[in-house]
Amino acid sequence: MRDISGKPALYSINTATLGYQAPLEAIIDDCAQRGIGGIAPWRRELDGRNVQDIARRLKNCHMSVSGLCRSTYYTAPTLAERRQAVDENRRALDTAAELSANCYMQVVGGLPGGSKNLAEAHRQVKEGIAQLLPHSRDVGVPIALEPLHPMTAADRSCLCSLRQALDWCDELDPDGGFRLGVAVDVYHLWWDPYLAEQLKRAGNRILAFHVSDWLVPTTDLVSDRGMPGDGVIDIRAIRAQVEAAGFKGLVELEIFSANNWWKQNQSLILDVSVERISEHC
Amino acid sequence: MRDISGKPALYSINTATLGYQAPLEAIIDDCAQRGIGGIAPWRRELDGRNVQDIARRLKNCHMSVSGLCRSTYYTAPTLAERRQAVDENRRALDTAAELSANCYMQVVGGLPGGSKNLAEAHRQVKEGIAQLLPHSRDVGVPIALEPLHPMTAADRSCLCSLRQALDWCDELDPDGGFRLGVAVDVYHLWWDPYLAEQLKRAGNRILAFHVSDWLVPTTDLVSDRGMPGDGVIDIRAIRAQVEAAGFKGLVELEIFSANNWWKQNQSLILDVSVERISEHC
């Protein structure tokens, strides 16, 4: 297991953590100033921007992109909507390639509007991912399936466990030729008693590692995540397993916190982020 | 699969659904008036009461107890607290026996206060259950392990999936001599893509079947459950699997709804309950 304490070059900041206050340039500069090794930006921050300028700025700061967030949902009531989602995700892969992103992060979608058919949701997601895989290989950016917490199954992600994500990898990319992989987010997966066995199974399928903490009590199903150390997740123990499986990438902090951290200013959030990753991850 | 439509004798009302407004006698009478086949009372409603009187009243109304709710948490920082929990649960088994309850419902507890050690929580629960099994057999009331939704893992239940519950059954009661089993609650388990395979595996370990619905959006992690039909769970499809596995017991409605149903009066809640089980379960 790596010693990451005091080594911000091994950290990445998911820009959602900062509450979308500042443009990407200011985020990159603030992160670079602290020696942070990477960011994970969101597509909304890149829309209409000169992506090559952003890529150049990152390169000049010796920073990488641990992942581009995130996919348009694959589940939808009509075929036309699902085709559009795949098209948007194909274009996002191009953007990810321009940024030399380490992976393209997938939040796959919940039940197609109005439906109770979970199996159909699974089918739609796998169909969409399968359609994207050749383009992912062509542009050199692997797709990372991110299992989200089961409490998001209805409206955000019918993909809810690492076992499920790895089963889908085996099904859609049996020989690994497409480099289809997974994102391991401690917030979504910490509760799973079979996490350790699935992390062993995952091996080099692990493309990203996200940290934050589960607060007690949690007051919102989406935007009440805690900074590492403020909750109950044994983050370091999970990182040990992730690295034992072969992961060597950045430790990415991703926090949604409408009522706490998003109300702080960016400098403070970044200072605390670096300190908390160093001490608790 | 049974046709339960319009057959309230096959329904049970978990008294939590009614918001703890009336004493058990009034609940039993109101349920009996509607031809409801059973209730699942809570220990708090029986404390200091003459349980045999309650049992007699139920018998006179031709009603049964689909389960007694629920265990004192098994997880705690000190051995003394854990011993006390087992003692309390032993006494609760006696109460369950007086009521001829179909099972004693287990909500097992989350992380022991202040700890991040999920494996230790699992160990503590299994240790406590193992200590109770002989008494469960002696009084003739089987213990039902209820996996709760993963969003409760920190503070209510480190037991989060049917697979985990069945693994624990196999470990603690390999030959079924203690009749250790599980409670299948659609609210807690609907998201699990492996639910169907685990229900097949469960067979006659299924001791209880609970219904309610997952609302979108869900605004509280505990007390924002919906009436069947108001959410996204395909309850009937799950019941088909539960009954294919061999379950023949009552369909129990259990809703926690601080901001909606608990504000209604008992008669209305019961009328809607019967209608919704009939139409949507």
List the defining traits of the structure above.
homodimer; 281 residues; alpha/beta; TIM Barrel; 10 helices; Sugar phosphate isomerase/epimerase (chains A, B)
Polypeptide structure, described:
- Two copies of one chain form a homodimer.
- Chain A has helices at 24-33, 43-46, 51-60, 79-98, 118-139, 162-172, 186-189, 195-202, 235-244, 266-280, and strands at residues 11-14, 38-40, 64-65, 104-106, 143-145, 181-185, 206-211, 251-253.
- The first copy, chain A, is built from ten helices and eight strands.
- In chain A, helix 4 packs parallel to helix 5.
- Chain A is 41% helix and 10% strand.
- The mean pLDDT of chain A is 98.
- With 281 residues, the first copy, chain A, is of the alpha/beta class.
- In chain A, strand 7 (206-211), helix 9 and strand 8 form a beta-alpha-beta unit.
- Chain A has one domain: Divalent-metal-dependent TIM barrel enzymes (TIM Barrel), CATH 3.20.20.
- An eight-stranded parallel β-sheet of chain A has the order 3-2-1-8-7-6-5-4.
- Chains A, B: Pfam families: AP_endonuc_2 (PF01261).
- Chains A, B: Keywords: Isomerase.
